[in-house]
Amino acid sequence: MAYTLEYKTPKSMMNKGTGFLTGYSHSLNPYAGCSFGCSYCYVRQMPVSTFRGKPWGTWVDVKETAADVFCHELRRAKAKGRVTIFMSSSTDPYQPAEAKERVTRSLLEVMVEDPPDFLLVQTRSPLVQRDTDLLLRLGDRVRVSMTVETDREDIRRHFTPGTPPIEARIRTLQQLREAGVPAQATIAPVLPSTENFPERLRPLVDRICIDDYFMGDGSGGKRTQRLGMRRIYCEIGMEEWYHPDAYRKVYERFAAVFPPDSVRISQDGFEP
Ligand code: SF4
Q1: How distant, in Å, are the alpha carbons of 40, 169, 192, 237, 242 from that of 150?
Q2: What is the pLDDT of residues 75-97, one digit of tens each?
Q3: How many CB atoms lie within 10 A of CB 5?
Q4: 138 C-alpha vs ligand 1 centroid, how far in Å?
Q5: In a domain, 34, yes or no
Q6: Residue 203 burial (CB count, 10 A)
Q7: How many domains are contained in the chain?
Q8: Position 199 in a domain
Q9: Which residues form the signal peptide (predicted)?
């Protein structure tokens, strides 16, 4: 998606983990805005987007000097207790701008020198693989959570045309596994998929997280409703997948292929 880039100097980088992120002491967003511009993105409904005056997905703020600010905050936070970080809650840390700007990489460099107790890297971008060297240095204190909402490329193109292809994400999970970086596949939000989906992921990850709008958008599905998601399902005649029970079908398919306890639902799937 075409987007404009602005450079901003942040006053702070670490936000307190609240609501859905109760398992985390902090969230960390290297950017504001996200050029992936997913149709279902709940951030569209949040003040960071609604007060911007430009459509979500068309603007990105690069947080300059983020690493310096973060370095001080991390040290202070660690002096107070356990630090568990969710990166990121309202942007994708490996969206296209990161290839050149390297803000996310600079934050990882800080964490390698002064590790938090746990870091979850939430992304849908193969670019995460570039930072394998740093992720490995964090050992079992890190987990990459790769969003793979469906195994159907036509569905991906319908709902999130600005995001990396499904095959590229699956290949990235393979590369992370070969390198020894802990990772999970995150089917969130659940989109229409095939019966073979679990078989595709089984050799690649030991942990699956399944979430949907009704459990995971922070408002019981109301934010998603306001985004008009039902219409996007209707356009392709798949309204039955826009339902609070639709995730169960996907859960049962995965539970039949993955070991017990490795298929987790909603908040539990993102826990440190
Ligand atoms: S990648 Fe995440 S933050 Fe970016 S638009 Fe999609 S859902 Fe929103």
Answers
A1: 14, 11, 6, 17, 14
A2: 999 999 999 999 999 999 999 99
A3: 14
A4: 25
A5: yes
A6: 9
A7: 1
A8: yes
A9: none
- Is 220 inside a domain boundary? yes
Contact 216, 20 (CB under 8 A): yes
Which domain, by its residues, includes 68? 4-258
- What would the pLDDT profile of 34-79 be if each residue is shown by its tens digit? 999 999 999 998 899 999 999 999 999 999 999 999 999 999 999 9
Confidence at 176, pLDDT banded by 50, 70, 90: very high
Q: The domain that contains 181 carries what CATH number? A: 3.20.20.70
- Which residues have C-beta atoms less than 6 Å from ligand 1? 34, 36-38, 41, 43, 91-92, 124
Instruction: Give the span between the Cα atoms of 121 and 89, in whole angstroms.
Output: 10
- Ligand 1 centroid, distance to 245 Cα (angstroms): 23
Instruction: Give, using CA atoms, the residue closest to atom 8 of ligand 1.
Output: 41
Residue 272: inside a domain, yes or no? no
Give the tokens for residue 165: 């292809």
Query: CB-based contacts of 219: which residues, under 8 Å, 6+ apart?
Result: 42
